[in-house]
TrEMBL record:
Its main location: membrane. One of its GO terms (biological process) is siderophore transmembrane transport. This is TonB-dependent receptor. It is found in: Cell outer membrane. It comes from Cyclobacterium qasimii M12-11B.
Length: 557
């Protein structure tokens, strides 16, 4: 976040149908202390609500929104010392509500379902910038951060038959989080024009809440709360790197990173060398190459099946080691008169990855989460292309990535390789802006991506009879041929906007007209199993936003 203005008060913002934002800055004490504050909130869900209800005859309501707040204070102590205090808070929420009914024999069942997930971050930081001398600079930073994840579902059913109506309600909630206290010291040393050294150290105290599950039901005595114990761990690191001008054409970066992790009495250590080089072939062409090793002590766990997306962060433990990766990349850049073309190919191997075992989910809290996961390896490689036009009345870029990401675990998918959930074979982005007058422009953005991989059952049969709450029922047993054997529909969307502005004595005004999702593509947010009117199971896609027109008014002062 930029620093607040030390001389005068300034502000800018916009008010629109889809989102609003505002930023104000100015001096607290002129030439000594300044502040900057900003806030943003989207309400695309409110605007989309009537459109979704109309398209589904009132049976569905899906939405997503986020807000964030930023604040920063900058204080000049003297010519060699500055203090910065910054705070960030933000939340995202996605939800789906729908109702339906089905008829089975002489009974009619009406049901209302609600699913949602909410995640958010809070970060505060105090930084001291110190100029030790003309060649040596330092930054000391102390931070506190918090991440929360909350997943919930509510279900109500009304069963009508033989002149009587029975109402049952069920609710589930899963929440997890991470809290961090950290301190770091970073230094920059410039002994001469051919060397730029960076070195430092940091330590982070983690407190993980791997997950708490709460369930309530109006049927029987089934209220339940389960949860894993909190985990405390310490992460620490030391690093050094040097930007070297070897010749006027050849530059290199050499670095060495050491990191460690202490958890449950177990210590993990990792030494990570890194090297990168760039060679200037001529004034318009350069080539580059890099080799990097990395270690990460926090794992990302994703659900492989249907339902709302759940990305959970869990730590390395005495039983679950850290994940490590090695990546090599080569690329180049070519500048033309008004265009720039860049290309990069990469190859990445990963070890120590974790994934839910077959049949396990984050909701199986009657057992430790460490017993529900398997460790394995991963492979990712691809080619990235980018063509940019930065000058002229028409500017923009087109980017294309061809990639493949796979995973392999001995205890999953019969030990065979399978596509990662976020494997995206093709990814395209196109952005164009045309400024035909000094105060008017038109922009177009189009994005395309291969759909996420998901696991779907290929066979289903009735299991043995189960007695529960005075009755009996036969659960469905589902068979999965392989992990991530199905692809969601590809994601693509076109947005257009037209802007014009006027400059006044007090500042600037700007108006923007736009259309989000011009051709009304119903992109998948998630897939789930539902029922049709005849109580037959079916796979159903849930989408967030249809075509939405927008208008905003912006200002600067």
């Amino acid at each position: 976040m930029k620093e607040g203005n030390m001389q005068e008060f300034k502000g800018e913002g916009s008010i629109g149908l889809i989102a609003s934002k505002v930023t104000v800055e100015g001096p607290i004490k002129k030439d000594k202390t300044s502040f900057i504050l900003s806030a943003r909130r989207t309400y695309l869900d409110i605007l989309a609500r009537p459109l979704i209800k109309a398209a589904t005859e009132g049976d569905e309501n899906l939405g997503y929104y986020f807000y964030d707040l930023n604040g920063k204070v900058n204080h000049i102590v003297n010519d060699k010392n500055r203090l910065y205090l910054s705070v960030y808070s933000g939340d995202d929420k996605a939800y789906s509500k729908f109702k339906n009914f089905y008829v089975n024999d002489n009974e009619r069942t009406e049901y209302d379902e609600e699913f949602g997930l909410k995640w958010g971050n809070f970060i505060s930081a105090l930084r001291w910038n110190n100029v030790i001398n003309s060649r040596l600079f330092s930054n000391y930073t102390f931070t506190y951060s918090k991440y929360n994840f909350d997943l919930f579902s509510n279900y109500e059913e009304k069963i009508t038959g033989l002149g009587a109506t029975e109402t049952n309600t069920y609710s589930d909630r899963y929440f997890s989080g991470i809290r961090d206290w950290a301190g770091r010291a970073d230094f920059e040393f410039i002994p001469n024009p051919d060397h730029y050294f960076r070195f430092g150290t940091n330590v982070i105290f983690h407190k993980f809440s791997p997950g708490v599950y709460a369930s309530k039901s109006s049927v029987g005595d089934n209220d339940l709360q389960l949860g894993a114990e909190e985990l405390n761990s310490t992460e620490y690191a030391v690093y050094a790197e040097d930007d070297i001008n070897i010749t006027s054409r050849l530059k290199a970066n050499l670095g060495l990173h050491y990191s460690g992790f202490n958890t449950e009495g177990q210590n993990y250590n990792s030494l990570q060398p890194r090297i990168a080089a760039r060679y200037l072939v001529n004034s318009s062409t350069s080539v580059k190459a890099s080799y990097v090793t990395m270690a990460q002590f926090i794992h990302l766990l994703t659900n492989a099946g249907l339902g709302l997306p759940t990305d959970l962060w869990v730590p390395a433990t005495a039983n679950i080691g850290p994940q490590k990766a090695m990546q090599v990349a080569i690329g180049g850049v070519k500048n033309f008169k008004s265009f720039e073309l860049s290309a990069e190919a990469y190859y990445k191997t990963m070890d120590g990855l974790i994934e839910y075992k077959d049949g396990a989910t984050y909701l199986n809290l009657d057992e430790d989460w460490q017993d529900k996961v398997a460790a394995g390896e991963g492979l990712s490689y691809g080619l990235e292309l980018l063509l940019q036009k930065k000058v002229g009345k028409i500017s923009g870029w087109i980017g294309y990535t061809l990639s493949k990401t796979e995973r392999r675990f001995e205890e999953i998918n019969f030990g065979e390789w399978f596509p990662y959930k976020y494997d995206r074979r093709h990814d395209v982005s196109l952005a164009l802006a045309h400024e035909w007058k000094e105060n008017k422009d038109f922009s177009v953005v189009w994005v395309y991506g291969t759909g996420n991989a998901v696991s779907l059952p290929t066979q289903r049969y009735e299991g043995a009879s189960v007695n529960s709450n005075g009755g009996s029922w036969r659960p469905d047993i589902e068979y999965y041929e392989s992990r991530n054997n199905f692809r969601n529909r590809d994601y693509h969307r076109l947005d257009v906007s037209f802007s014009w502005w006027k400059t006044k004595k007090w500042g600037e005004r700007k108006w923007t007209l736009g259309i989000y999702n011009v051709y009304n593509r119903m992109n998948p947010f998630f897939m789930d199993i539902g029922y049709d009117k005849q109580s037959n199971k079916q796979v159903k896609q849930y989408s967030l936003f249809p075509i939405i027109p927008s208008f905003s008014y912006g200002f600067k002062f």
